[in-house]
Design brief:
Blueprint lengths: L3 E4 L12 H9 L2 E4 L2 H10 L6 E3 L5 H13 L3 E5 L12 H9 L3 E4 L5 H9 L6 E6 L4 H13 L3 E6 L4 H12 L3 E6 L7 E6 H6 L10 E5 L12 H10 L2 H12 L3 H20 L1
Parallel strand pairs: 1-4, 1-5, 2-3, 2-4, 6-7
Antiparallel strand pairs: 7-10, 8-9, 8-10
Helix pairs in contact: 3-4, 9-10, 10-11
Length: about 280
């Protein structure tokens, strides 16, 4: 008889959120795969559980996958946990699950804690549909593609972000997207849980109000603008008569909610066209 992989969600902060099914699975698996064994040991100690552990993270998941499949072929029941929440969602697990399904080995996913759904419900933003992008890429080209996906999204967008980068990210989001409703959800289910709700413009102008602590889920609401947006040239032309380019762009961005980067490019083109017209 072949074994099974049991995907076990763990608490995202409050240890009391572990489900009865997850607890039973942790007690009975032959082996538990952990994103960080040091982190998982704390959870197991809390519930008095002793079980063999094996590290399974982004740096070794490809080499471990075949080894795990062989053990399952021999009948072992193996659990998979991440440091918090549902394994495979911006955490190790996706490669393993896909490969086991390809090999026609059993995979069971237990329901449980999720930072994404917890943040969405608590954000107060539209959540009938949403776009989840995980962590923003550190690669400039990939990050620009993510900006474009957010810009054109008609639903709320969910991001994970590091507390060290959250202030800079909020400023960059405002410059790239214009004004949007936003919710910064931090330390979910923990003692100091906090939801910071407002608009990108207000938070970008005073990013120091955002604490640089705790794990953060960022929810960006839809723009609320129609796909066919008004041409901003008229507003830019008026602003450019009285102020320098950068100030004009900032003023029009605040007035229209359009992305500052987009307005800047338009203003530069207008200046170039004006110069070309004078030369001719």
């Amino acid at each position: 008889m072949k074994g099974k992989l049991i995907v076990i969600p763990t608490p995202i902060g409050n240890l009391g959120d572990l489900t009865f099914r997850a607890l039973e699975a942790l007690k009975t698996v032959d082996l538990l795969l952990c994103e960080d064994t040091r982190h998982t040991v704390k959870l197991l100690h809390h519930y008095g559980i002793r079980v063999p552990l094996m590290s399974y993270h982004k740096f070794n998941e490809k080499e471990r996958t075949e080894q795990i499949a062989r053990r399952m072929e021999k009948g072992e029941f193996i659990g998979l946990v991440s440091d918090a929440g549902m394994p495979g969602v911006s955490d190790p697990g996706e490669i393993l699950i896909r490969e086991l399904i390809r090999k026609e080995l059993a995979v069971e996913v237990l329901p449980g804690a999720s930072a994404v759904t917890t943040a969405l419900v608590g954000s107060g933003l539209p959540i009938a549909s949403f776009l989840f992008l995980g962590f923003l890429s550190g690669d400039k080209r990939a990050r620009k593609e993510q900006w474009n996906r957010i810009l054109t999204a008609k639903e709320s967008v969910v991001l994970y972000e590091s507390p060290r980068r959250i202030r800079k990210t909020v400023v960059q989001l405002y410059e790239a997207l214009g004004d949007r409703p936003i919710a910064i959800c931090r330390e979910l289910t923990k003692l100091h849980e906090e939801y910071i709700r407002g608009n990108l413009s207000a938070l970008a102008e005073n990013p120091e109000q955002i604490p640089e602590k705790g794990e953060i889920v960022l929810i960006i609401g839809p723009s609320g603008r129609e796909e066919e947006r008004a041409d901003p040239k008229e507003a830019l032309e008026e602003a450019l008569r009285d102020m320098p380019l950068s100030q004009a762009v900032k003023a029009v961005a605040k007035e229209t909610g359009l992305p500052r980067n987009e307005l800047y490019e338009t203003a530069v083109r207008m200046k170039e066209e004006e110069t070309d017209g004078c030369d001719s």
